[in-house]
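ugh ok fine here u go
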Amino acid sequence: MTKTFNEKLAEAESLPDIFEIVKHAVRKAHKAGRAGLTLGLADLGGSETSFVGAFYPFGSNIIVMNKTPLNRIKGSRPELYKPYSFHVLLHEYLHSLGYIDEELVREMAYKISLKLFGEEHLVTQIAEDLARFLPELVYPDPDWQPTDTPEIEMVQDFDRSSTDYIM
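structure:
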């Protein structure tokens, strides 16, 4: 029996696991994909009303995800960790496929989430209105910003299905 996307996400144990679900979701919804991405984590800060969840430098092979909200979620609302991570990685993965327009990518992420997870799932709720979850994502206080240039910590074995052929 094939597992639902909800079941797959519930079983995911790491960001690389979640990313594999993201890639499967995009293949299913848009028949598109790419290989060879890496993930870096960095303290990018945030404010009470906004923050950068992640960014994808166009033309690169790296997604840089903000550790600030990830750390906050782990400590205050762990049930948001997987849905939030899925949403952010989906959004940046769509950018890596060449979609530049932010509104289009937000709409695509919402439609994919709605189709694969349903209206009531946290993934879909986050995709529909991330601002609703902002208070839980700011860490350690609303105006905290990193003091230095953020150091990027690379996540090992991130894009696993792209490297099956390497011995």
